[in-house]
């Protein structure tokens, strides 16, 4: 067997390794490019949220028209005038200011057989019973200004618990389940979103409004840098291997 025959398997392995390495570089670059695309998308989302939250409030009916047309009214400022149906409070597990408790949702009668659910804000566990916060149960007509929030037609994830309507404990916003036993007319028109009331305390201190949390992480730039950096490292290693494979061999020493 000649020296060339002995070297051939090693060369084949080297070529296979080089091809696999090139595939790895392509994949890493593709992942980096995908993160750049995600970065532009996320910046657009954050820009839209910023524009929405700083816009003047729109009437509830105008926001309802947008919801029916586009299905997305998240964080649009909205104002509503009507009367709370305090006997139909619904409670969502929540935290606020480091304390655990409930967000209190209540339907508002807007008149004309129109209703919208209002997240009036946070109460601690020991204030769930309306009797412990009678002053905050506003009777008569009132105004609410806050942010519109989308509702879900189905549970967002299997990780989210099911709403327990029997115990009046909710984990995700579903208008059908919220309305069970609320005493709304059978032909009521419930607007297709809910309103997170703006900051401020109700009379007597509870509920506390302004519970909306807008905290959307945007780490796509560092992810892109990571993928591109790994691609550069791998490409450098492949380049070094190619250099070693094709560099001129030093001449054999003259033994004459």
From TrEMBL:
UniProt-listed InterPro entries: Surf1/Shy1 (IPR002994), Surf1/Surf4 (IPR045214)
GO cellular component: plasma membrane
Transmembrane segments: 15-34
Keyword annotations from UniProtKB, A to Z: Cell membrane, Membrane, Transmembrane, Transmembrane helix
Subcellular location(s) per record: Cell membrane; Membrane
Membrane topology per record: Multi-pass membrane protein
Family classification: Belongs to the SURF1 family.
Designated name of the protein: SURF1-like protein
